[in-house]
Amino acid sequence: xxxxxxxxxxxxxxxxxxxxxxxxxxxxxxxxxxxxxxxxxxxxxxxxxxxxxxxxxxxxxxxxxxxxxxxxxxxxxxxxxxxxxxxxxxxxxxxxxxxxxxxxxxxxxxxxxxxxxxxxxxxxxxxxxxxxxxxxxxxxxxxxxxxxxxxxxxxxxxxxxxxxxxxxxxxxxxxxxxxxxxxxxxxxxxxxxxxxxxxxxxxxxxxxxxxxxxxxxxxxxxxxxxxxxxxxxxxxxxxxxxxxxxxxxxxxxxxxxxxxxxxxxx
Length: 266
Fold this sequence. Notes:
CATH architecture: 3-Layer(aba) Sandwich
Low-confidence stretches: 1-18
CATH superfamily: NAD(P)-binding Rossmann-like Domain
Mean pLDDT: 93
Helix content: 40-55%
Number of strands: 8
CATH topology: Rossmann fold
Order of helices and strands: HEHEHEHEHEHHHEHEHEHHH
Shape: globular
Strand content: 5-15%
CATH class: Alpha Beta
Number of helices: 13
Radius of gyration: 18 Å
Largest sheet: 6 strands, parallel
Number of domains: 1
Structural class: alpha/beta
Distance between the termini: 39 Å
């Protein structure tokens, strides 16, 4: 949706803010499942789709407070769709978005990792991940919930106004859709920073100072400003290599510290 589509749609999105929403989540893993749990606890109506069908996640969905559905049903009769699947799998779910109305907010939580996803030439050549995702889906997306570790999402949230509250960036081309996404981020326990349009969303991709570094709102603003587009994929791959070479698992705190050390501006 864009502002040019008229005041009726803008008004509709305004009415969503501060109210319970119907939310479909495609992806029942660590990120998708945790978002589902937190938003269900906040009073939203949640439908959740896993990669193996609704029966495979029925018990998990019941524990979360969500309704297990197919991906096709996850996008029907909802206000928001949250896409939380491996980045390379996005084209495989594109068909279910064919009839999704333009005023449905679609949030992309994914990140591109070539070692896992294979090479995607457009992204390797500099196209921001969420612009590529939008093109695959045929629907604009808001990039959010991508720049934090799963453990941060589970345990790092705090009440609004808490000193030192962790902030995460939210990027998108539509101001109203981005505001809806920011409100949902807040409900999961994090400050949401407007990170600009999708063309600048590379600043919150893997290998940047804003990515998985658990920063406060002022620190996150500085991190986005310090991002280096050419250096980001180099640092991304260096970090993955270093993590994979560890002989024993690092603690959460060690992972965050290493992300900060490698991506810090220099």
